[in-house]
Every structure is written in C-alpha cells, then in structure tokens.
Amino acid sequence: MTTTNSTSIVNSFPSLPALARDDFPTNFAWGCSTSSFQIEGAATADGRAESIWDRFCQQPGKIRDGSNALVACDHYHRWPEDLDIAKQFGMNAYRFSIAWPRVISELGAKTNQRGLDFYSRLVDGMLERGLQPWATLYHWDLPQYLQELGGWERRATIDAYLEYADAVTRHLGDRVKNWITHNEPWCTAMHGNWDGMHAPGQQNFKAALQVCHHVLLSHGLAVPMIKSNVAQAQVGIALSLHPLRTASDKSEDRAAMQRHDGLRNRWFLDPLFGRGYPTDILEHCAADAPVMASGDLDVIATPIDFLGVNYYFPETIVDAPELPPLHTKLAILPDRERTDFAWEVAPDGMRELLVRIKNDYPKIPIFLTENGSSYDDKLEADGSVSDTRRRNYFIRHLDALKQARAEGVDVRGYFAWSLMDNFEWAEGYLRRFGMVYIDFVTQKRTVKESGRWFSAFLNQNK
Fold this sequence. Notes:
The protein is 39% helix and 13% strand.
C-alpha cells in the first residue's frame, strides 16, 4: 500500500481542518475496533457453540436483509490479511472481541482448547505486527445454552461469565494487558430486552433493567479477577454515550431530555463511579427497578483504569406525553447532516460529551473505543471505493478529539469503527462502516479512500 503525506491530503480540501499525527502524543493509541460475531464467520468450526445472535438470525424478520453471520468476513480464516492491513494503516493497537461460545461450548464444560488456540494465534499475530491487543470479553454473543436458562436476566449467568473471563484472561494475559469487560451494556440490556431490536429480542422493560444490573455487576466482579490473572492489567468498560439536545426550549422537552439522560447515560456512568443508580430515574421505574443484593452497588463501583467511550451521534429529545415517562421520543430534525444510516454527523458532540464526562465524574483516562460512519459505498469499475464523506468524517471527529484534549480531557487513544465492512447486527449487510470494502461473495478486501487517508495520516513522519 502506498501512502502520501496526510497534511497535503487534508489541505487540498480547505473546508476541512488541518490535522497532523503530531497533534497527539507520541504514545497515543491508534487503532480500529472489531467484534467477533460481526467478522469471524466459521460459526460451527472447531467446537464453537451457538450464540443468541445465531438463533436471532434464524427468526424471520429480525435481520433486515434476511442474512446471517455464518461466514461474515471469514476473519477466522483470513485474519493474517486483515492484521496486515491494520499494520499497513500505521495502527499501533487493535481492538477485538472474544467469542464466548468458542471458549466454553456448553454449560459446565471445560474450556474449548481449539477456541482458545485461535485467539492465541490472533494475539500473536497482532504482536508480530506491532499492534497492541485490546480484548473485549463480551460483545453481545452470549451462548444460547445460557439464554435458555434465563440469560443475563438470571443472576447465575454472572458466575458463568466469570468462569469464561477467568479462562480467557489466564490463557491470554501473558500477552494481552488491555481488557474491556463489556461493550455497550445499553445495547445488551435495552436493545436486547426492551425494544427487542437485538438478540435475544425480548420486549420487557423490567427484564431490561435486571439484565443491565447483572451485566454491570459482572463487570465489577471481573475487574479484580482480571488484575489477579494478568500482571499490569489495564481494565475498563466501553459505554455507548450520547450528548443530548431538546427539540425546543419548552420545559416539557427539557424535562424529557433529563429523563432520557438519566436512562441513556447516567444509568451507567453513575453506578460505575460510585453514585448508585440515578434517584430521579429510580422514582420513575419503581415497579420495574432491578432486584439487588446488599453490596452490589459497591461491586459495580470497583475502580477501573480507563473508560471506553463509543461516540456516534447526539440525540434530540421531544416530550411524548402519550408515552410512559421513561419511554422518550427521539426527534429527527430535517436540517442536519446525516450518514446513509440516518445518524446525525456532529463532530462537536464528541467534544461536548468528553468535556461533560471530565467535568461531571472523577478524573479517569478515556479511550474513544468506537467512532465511525456508515455510507452506501460502491466498488467502482476501476476497483476503487471513493468514500469521501467517511474520510471527512474521520478528519472532523479527530479534530474534535484534538479540541477536547485542549480543554483538558485525558483522552489517550482512538479506535475507528471499523477496519472493514461487516455483519451490522439487525441491519445485516446493508450498512458499511469499514475503511476496507468487503465483497461478501468473494471475500476480496479493497482499501477505501478513507483507509488510504488514515494510512497517510498515521504513517506521517515515520
């Protein structure tokens, strides 16, 4: 892959901010994020068990294009090529997730050595290429055998998670030092069990809050265990967080925004930083509040080494008096720039969100563990993919990250979502987030314009 000077690329578009790698510290983590279910494929290979997402994909109407992730990007077999691309991009870090169903294939079973061996080869491949491994233990692919016993709604699933996490961190901890316990508990709990958009597809608010509590509790219990297993471990959690707007200046909209903030953001941040669940939200959901044991909130607040923030877009809230108080409505304003997924493009929202975390919560290192955009990319006749809007998205959001650092936010790394197009959950293969175009028939990888820019930016002055 050839690269050019990134400054010349940026400056050839005067409306874009000038940006250089030297604007960030030399030890800044530059990487991409991926997840096991979305890219690996090999759904039945080497003893892998069924996950809740495998089962969800079998249900008619759950995946928009009727697809599944049985093959996905075939990363399970093509991982050397994918890591080569990450290295060529100039990245020094690589975030991946481990598939629980590959590691423990049935209830009470011993660990599946073939599954562990795959991740061992993958981690070795990262290190050989100068990529620091960042492992996510749970990125939504719960084993189906646990779901059939009640899933995350059942407290015993915490014990199963800890057994899994113990096995993985013991096996990989000699090489992997950065660990994320969970990715986006909001999606696990709310999309999976409240609105039913994600696996397991339940629509029960009380169950969703219980799931959320058990996920956060499993996180708190895992932190000291990981540190015991892994010398010099750095442990955190990755949250999906949103800056919020109101559709108007009406007091009703402001009150609705406050409630939405309580459930969307504070419901996770507050207990993780020792404040317990927000009292204003508990008042609204008294009948649905999670069952907790004495000491649970202290466990959830176990100190972490960093906070992962996944930022994509702000949310605009409008009061909906016809709905229960916590069932707020998102307003779609017509005058906003949007991706082809209809997500608002708002780089300053990233800065705003990060500054808020700095101001409202105890000081903690932050990593942008996901940030990216979906556009309807096309492979041109000459074999190129011109995704100028995604390239511009990265430039503008990295500039916002630079501004946040200038305002005192301790941001230490940025992971783009994602290295390559993949199975995008309920959207199937309709959404492309990658810097690498995947032909899902041939599995051919093609670096997009955004990937060429990222490579030029990261390889600058090397």
